[in-house]
């Protein structure tokens, strides 16, 4: 999904004459110019001056909010938006900006009613429709998002990104032909749009009579001096070459893409490895038993956490569970990590500390001091309404494997399902995926091996300290013995058997993960053992895993 570009607009400063208005606009433009030059401190300083000198200039507060959001200061952005609302009460652009800020702060529950109300608001520009559609999509209101992206495209038919966003939502909803058509419109207007090329490659399996390799090679040649676009195009090319069983060429393209992607990132895998080691140390003991006479928790109304590494089958498991009449598939929720981080930060702030300066290891240590019952209540209160309304719901955030012990302490009635896959297939599946922002360890084989080993050790630790709590689903068993593995999964979740769970591919529910196209197919085992097609190229990864005692 592409975020609409900033949309600074001018309005008359309340109680100001022409000279004041001209001066306010000039200062506003200076703030934007500083941001565009890559001078964030100057941009913020100019924003501060703008707010102090011209507090009645509504467009100034709007720009201040947008600039702060661009600089990842959602709190300051929200404060500026509140000042804007004092001048433009109930104005759609102000309400849109407030909802955007709330979502960026993880306050989805407060943002949702704003977004729902804006669905019927008199929006006047393509920017406003596109912004609302983005917020709706983030809140999993995909049908509404589709309608507003269509309105944005109708108002600005020459803008390629509107068609890209339409295609993205169509793919979420399983409308593959409609997504393909929207991408054709996008690429007709922006033939070098690398993300559109990548999305088109991912829509379906390519074959010898229908592929896009010539277009990809042409785009790569024309983007020779644009490493970000080149990285994305190489991933698209690798995917199509793999579909065509051109194994060596596919891996070569993938290596090129991963190298370009990794070169643009500031990341140290040691930080993640050390954090997982810290988690094992801090949570080295099993959680205390509930006091005598405490009410016994039940599975009813409890969440089902589906955890594991990405690309290991977590989406498949969620789709299976989501077909059950008692289960709502809520997708990848950030609420647990967000609520935990907020609780840690509030505790530090109450003691006069500065939460922003905490290291990851300090956050882990402080998390052990939390009121876990309160954390569980905060998590449940932050859920989307559909999750709270269902008898059961799934939370399929893979990285929740980091918090398995915390989840059990906070929500002892929750079911935790761990999906795991053959180590080499799991690592290769991550390596060949171009993730939007997460999983920076996946672009170098040596870092991938280090992260996998730390994950494996942490999961072994959770299994040892939470005996009988985590139900493990082996991906290979699931696809090769589908019904019995599914029966065991439902039983572990306290759910009665329903044969509809075997027809997960017929679900009309949206899927916003990297597996959005694959989950529309019946279960298959095409990916089992796929890594062996690249056994020679992946040998350094295999050696690193085997040296650590991982059986392959």
Task: Give a concise summary.
It is built from 26 helices and five strands. It has 552 residues and is mainly alpha-helical.
Short key terms for the protein model shown above:
5-stranded parallel beta sheet, 26 helices, 57% helix, 552 residues, Rossmann fold
Fourth CATH level, the homologous superfamily of one domain = P-loop containing nucleotide triphosphate hydrolases
Oligomer: single chain
Query: In CATH, what is the class of one domain?
Result: Alpha Beta
Please indicate the percent range of residues in DSSP E strands (runs of 2 or more). under 5%
Shape: globular
For the biggest β-sheet, the strand order reads 2-3-1-4-5
Overall pLDDT: 92
Rg, Cα atoms, Å: 25 Å
Number of strands: 5
Per-chain topology:
Blueprint: H1 18-36, H2 40-53, H3 58-70, H4 74-87, H5 92-104, H6 108-118, H7 126-138, H8 142-155, H9 160-172, H10 176-189, H11 194-203, H12 213-222, H13 227-243, H14 247-263, H15 269-282, E1 303-307, H16 314-322, E2 327-329, H17 335-350, H18 360-367, H19 372-381, H20 385-389, E3 392-395, H21 404-410, E4 415-420, H22 423-431, H23 445-465, E5 470-474, H24 475-480, H25 482-492, H26 539-547
Parallel strand pairs: 1-3, 1-4, 2-3, 4-5
Helix pairs in contact: 1-2, 1-3, 2-3, 3-4, 3-5, 4-5, 5-6, 5-7, 7-8, 8-9, 9-10, 9-11, 10-11, 11-13, 12-13, 13-14, 15-18, 15-23, 17-19, 19-21, 22-23, 23-26
């Amino acid at each position: 999904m592409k975020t609409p570009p900033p949309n600074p607009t001018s309005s008359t400063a309340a109680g100001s004459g022409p000279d004041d208005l001209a001066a306010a606009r000039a200062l506003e433009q200076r703030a934007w110019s500083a941001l565009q030059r890559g001078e964030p401190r100057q941009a913020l300083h100019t924003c501060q001056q703008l707010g102090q000198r011209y507090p009645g200039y509504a467009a100034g507060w709007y720009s201040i909010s947008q600039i702060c959001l661009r600089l990842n200061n959602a709190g300051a952005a929200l404060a500026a938006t509140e000042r804007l609302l004092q001048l433009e009460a109930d104005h759609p652009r102000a309400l849109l900006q407030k909802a955007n800020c709330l979502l960026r702060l993880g306050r989805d529950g407060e943002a949702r009613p704003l977004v729902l109300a804006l669905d019927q608001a008199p929006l006047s520009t393509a920017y406003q429709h596109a912004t609302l559609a983005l917020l709706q999509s983030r809140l999993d209101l995909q049908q509404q998002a589709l309608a507003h992206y269509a309105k944005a495209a109708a108002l600005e038919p020459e803008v390629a990104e509107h068609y890209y966003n339409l295609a993205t939502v169509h793919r979420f909803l399983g409308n593959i032909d409609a997504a393909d058509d929207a991408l054709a419109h996008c690429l007709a207007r922006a033939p070098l749009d690398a993300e559109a090329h990548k999305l088109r490659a991912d829509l379906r399996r390519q074959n010898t009579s229908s592929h896009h390799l010539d277009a990809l090679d042409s785009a790569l040649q024309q983007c020779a001096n644009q490493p970000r676009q080149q990285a994305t195009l190489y991933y698209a090319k690798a995917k199509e070459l793999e579909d065509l069983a051109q194994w060596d060429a596919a891996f070569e393209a993938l290596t090129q893409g991963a190298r370009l992607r990794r070169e643009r990132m500031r990341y140290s895998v040691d930080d993640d490895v050390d954090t997982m080691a810290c988690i094992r140390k801090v949570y080295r003991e099993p959680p205390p038993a509930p006091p005598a006479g405490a009410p016994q928790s039940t599975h009813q109304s409890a969440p089902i956490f589906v955890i594991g590494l990405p690309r290991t089958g977590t989406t498949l498991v969620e789709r299976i569970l989501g077909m059950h009449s008692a289960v709502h598939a809520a997708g990848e929720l950030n609420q647990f990590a967000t609520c935990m981080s907020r609780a840690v930060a509030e505790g530090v702030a109450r003691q006069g500390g500065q939460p922003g300066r905490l290291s990851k290891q300090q956050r882990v240590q402080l998390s052990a001091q939390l009121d876990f019952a309160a954390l569980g209540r905060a998590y449940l209160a932050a859920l989307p309404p559909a999750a709270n309304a269902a008898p059961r719901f799934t939370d399929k955030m893979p990285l929740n494997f980091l918090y398995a012990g915390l989840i059990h302490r906070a929500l002892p009635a929750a079911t935790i399902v761990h999906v795991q896959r053959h180590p080499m297939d799991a690592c290769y599946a991550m390596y060949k995926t171009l993730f939007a922002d997460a999983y920076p360890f996946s672009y170098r084989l040596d870092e991938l091996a280090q992260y996998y080993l730390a994950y494996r050790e942490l999961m072994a630790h959770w299994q040892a300290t939470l005996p009988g709590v985590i139900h493990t689903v082996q991906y290979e068993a699931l696809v090769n013995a589908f019904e019995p593995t599914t029966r065991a999964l439902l039983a572990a979740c306290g759910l009665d058997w329903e044969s509809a769970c075997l027809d997960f591919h017929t679900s009309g529910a949206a899927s916003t993960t990297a597996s959005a196209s694959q989950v529309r197919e019946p279960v298959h085992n095409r990916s089992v053992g796929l890594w062996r097609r690249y056994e020679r190229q992946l040998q350094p990864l295999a050696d690193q895993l085997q040296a650590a005692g991982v059986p392959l």
